[in-house]
Amino acid sequence: MANPMSAASAPYRPRRVPQRTCVSCGLTTAKRELIRLVHGPSGAVEPDPSGKRPGRGAYLCHNPECWERATKKGRLEHALRTKLSTDAREVLLQYAAERLAAEVP
Ligand SMILES: [Zn+2]
What is the mean pLDDT of each run of 10 residues along the chain (105 residues)? Predict the structure, then answer.
């Protein structure tokens, strides 16, 4: 009988996909399934679809409600350790609206 403990540490498990967590709903999934936002050196908070820009990053899933909640309830600010201006919030929500609308299943 296989011991569940040893099965969990099997040496030949598939290559691990980087996991990230949506700062709004807590969904943990593959990094590429989430959208990165970066608080870059300029101080601005911007979407980072490439996921490669320098700065503190936070991730949101593709649920527009998460973008609303994260920008309005301070979760994003907390994750990025910054304050979002009304303009920055607008830019992010605008980005989300366009980006998510383009994703017709
Ligand atoms: Zn989410």
Answer: 54 81 97 95 93 96 96 96 94 94 76
